[in-house]
Structure formats: structure tokens, C-alpha cells
Write a structure and sequence with these properties.
There is one protein chain. The chain is α/β, with parallel strands linked by helices and 288 residues long. 38% of the residues lie in helices and 14% in strands. Strands 1, 2, 3, 4, 5, 6, 7 and 8 form an eight-stranded mixed beta sheet that branches. Helix 1 runs antiparallel to helix 2 and helix 2 packs across helix 3. The radius of gyration is 19 Å and the shape is globular.
């Protein structure tokens, strides 16, 4: 039995936080329920429409994907977190890859494109988030070497149905101030002779913290728990901005192997973070 890959990054310490004050709790009191209602509405409507949608379009989700987009856009509005977009999401089928800083990445990427996320299998069992992920067609995988072949086969099946997949090749989230080396394993799914015209679009996500807050304010990494991080986002008096940059897609066939493809995409994503002023200068880090 192969050991699973190390999936948790601990490269920075999170800032201390004493919890919301009275005003913060008041913001939680209206933002929290409103966000829950939005997500629950999206889930229930999607579940109600999915049987008819499946009958008409099979695995494609032309209707329910729009509901997901609307809910994620509304969620950012509730948080008062601005989304600034540069470039355009790819129109054809294929994939997008992005750096991973927070659960907020899901809201940002869903808000601007109809996509299917590739996520670690554990997310399927998370309360609330797991239900939403399953309802929106997320592809769940186990990052174990012994299952690599099966995962590649699953991703190729989804690509063959014309799905636009999104995944985070770093394999973990960080503090948003760096891009870790991209793991090349999943890129094998795109090197298929049956789909020679596949493209992958690199996407950079840069978070700008509110005035007076640490630059790592939005990062969610290491052993940080979801509940307290969500509470901090809901209670914040003001929020900053997410800069979402869509780079030009790369043609898979122009790269000799999955490692070369991973390096090229990683370089584009890192350059985008650097241009946004969010990249923290530091020595290169080797990931297991």
C-alpha cells in the first residue's frame, strides 16, 4: 500500500485573532443566515431541476451551473468582498488550474465561469460544503499513488463529456503569498491521443487584505479550522478584494509530457500573482 501524499502546508503562522466584538457579532447575525439561505436555495433548486436536466442534456449542467454562479456571486456580495476580473474564462472544454489560498477560491472561480471542480474525496463528507459540492458535479478523487490510474480514467471520462474542470495542482492551500510547485500527477489525464486539441487555462487568484489587516488575512491553510475562519470573514467590518486573472490557455499537445505541462502552467500562475503584487519573495520550496 502506497503512502498518501502530504497535503497540508504549514509554511507560515496565522495571525492571532480574539474573535468578533459586539459589532462583529451583529454582522455575523445577518450575514451568516443570509449566506446559508443563499446556498440552501441553490442546493434545493439544483436538486429539483437536475433530473430533468439530466434527461435533456445528460452529464452537462447548462441550467444548474448558472444557479451555482448566481449563488456564488451573491455570496461575495453578502460578504462585501469585491471581485476584480482580468481576462476571460476559456470557452471550450478542457481545464483551468489555479493557486489555492482559501475556501473563498471556490466562490471566486464559480462566480465567473461554468466549471466542475476536482476535489479531494474528504470534502464529500463535510457538512454543508460536501452537499453543495456533490450537487454541483464536483469530481472527487483520492490523492494516493495506487489510485492514480483510476483517477486519470475518471477525469478523461469527464473531459470526453465536454466538462470544463478546475483543480488546484499545488495539492494544498497556502497563505495566498506564494505558489507551491505544481504536482504533475493529474496532468496525465490531459495527455490523451483521443483529445488532441485540449487546452488548460492558468488562473491566478490574488487576495488584497482590508486596510489594517495582515496580508495573509484571507489565507486558510495548515491546521486552521473552517468554522473560525468563516466567522472571521462574516464578522469583518470591511473587506478587501479578490483579483482573478484568466491567462491565455495553453495547448496540451505543445508540451512533451505532464511534468513540462505542469511547469509551464505553474510559471504562468506565479507570474500572475507576482504582477498582482501578492507574491512573497522567498527561496524555492520543495514539496513532497
Amino acid at each position: 500500500m502506497s503512502a498518501p501524499e502530504r497535503l497540508t502546508w504549514h509554511g507560515a503562522e496565522s495571525a492571532d485573532w480574539d474573535g468578533p466584538g459586539l459589532a462583529g457579532w451583529l454582522r455575523v447575525a445577518w450575514r451568516g443566515p443570509l449566506l446559508v439561505v443563499l446556498m440552501l436555495w441553490a442546493l434545493l433548486v439544483s436538486l429539483a431541476l437536475r433530473p430533468l436536466e439530466r434527461r435533456l442534456w445528460g452529464l452537462s449542467r447548462p441550467v444548474t451551473s448558472r444557479i451555482t454562479q448566481a449563488a456564488c456571486r451573491a455570496g461575495l456580495v453578502v460578504l462585501r468582498l469585491r471581485l476584480r476580473v482580468t481576462g476571460q474564462p476559456m470557452q471550450g472544454h478542457g481545464a483551468m488550474v489555479a493557486n489555492h489560498s482559501s475556501w473563498l477560491d471556490i466562490f471566486a472561480l464559480n462566480a465567473r465561469a461554468s466549471v466542475y471542480f476536482v476535489s479531494k474525496a474528504e470534502v464529500a463528507s463535510w457538512p454543508g460544503i460536501g452537499w453543495l459540492a456533490r450537487a454541483t458535479g464536483t469530481v472527487f478523487i483520492r490523492r494516493e499513488r495506487r489510485e492514480a490510474t483510476a483517477q486519470v480514467r475518471l477525469l478523461r471520462e469527464r473531459l470526453a463529456h465536454g466538462h470544463r474542470l478546475v483543480f488546484f495542482p499545488e495539492g494544498t492551500s497556502t497563505d495566498g503569498r506564494r505558489v507551491l510547485p505544481f504536482k504533475p500527477t493529474l496532468f496525465a489525464a490531459f495527455l490523451s491521443p483521443d483529445q488532441p486539441d485540449l487546452e488548460i487555462q492558468p488562473v491566478s487568484l490574488a487576495y488584497r487584505a482590508p486596510d489594517g489587516e495582515a496580508s495573509r488575512f484571507y489565507g486558510w491553510w495548515g491546521d486552521m479550522e473552517f468554522g473560525p475562519h468563516m466567522l472571521r470573514m462574516l464578522s469583518a467590518r470591511r473587506h478587501g478584494e479578490i483579483a482573478l486573472t484568466y491567462h491565455a490557455p495553453l495547448r496540451v499537445a505543445d508540451h512533451p509530457d505532464r511534468k513540462a505541462l505542469a511547469r509551464a502552467l505553474e510559471a504562468r500562475v506565479r507570474a500572475g500573482l507576482d504582477e498582482a503584487g501578492a507574491l512573497e519573495a522567498q527561496p524555492a520550496m520543495a514539496e513532497a
